[in-house]
Amino acid sequence: MDETPGDGGAAGIHELGSAAVLLYRWTVVHQSLTPAVLSRAAAETGISDREGHRALGSLLNACLLQELPAAPGHPGVRWQPVSPQAAASQLLSDRDAALRAQEESLRTQRR
């Protein structure tokens, strides 16, 4: 389940590495993740801080974490987990929108 840069398959969805899966599971159990607890989450899942930062990037790119707006008692950046189904739907929707824009651009160029 390693991430292969540039190999997103037909849907543009990358496989997640094991560190990202571990961090995602931790976030599901704890219901949110912040930069302040990322090191603790990494330690509790048995991954290094460096792997934790890379895993966070992978989860954000895969739309498996979404940023929550600042709330009283929760200042700063905070992410909550998103279901894999909702994340895939978001990725496909974004991809579809990009393809529609490219198609329109091609139509305009052909005219």
Word description of this protein:
The protein contains four helices and two strands. The protein is mostly helical and 111 residues long. A two-stranded antiparallel ribbon has the order 1-2. Helix 1 crosses helix 3 and helix 2 packs across helix 3 (49-61). The chain is elongated, with a radius of gyration of 17 Å. The relative contact order is 0.15. The model is unreliable at 1-12 (pLDDT under 50).
- Indicate the radius of gyration in whole angstroms: 17 Å
User: Roughly what fraction of the amino acids lie in strands?
Assistant: 5-15%
Mean pLDDT: 83
Oligomer: single chain
Question: Can you give me a brief rundown of this structure?
Answer:
With 111 residues, the chain is mainly α. It contains four helices and two strands. α1 crosses α2 and α2 crosses α3.
Secondary-structure topology with pairs:
Layout: H1 18-30, H2 38-45, H3 49-61, E1 65-67, E2 79-81, H4 84-110
Helix pairs in contact: 1-2, 1-3, 2-3
Highlighted features:
55% helix, disordered N terminus, 4 helices, 111 residues, mainly alpha, two-stranded antiparallel ribbon, elongated
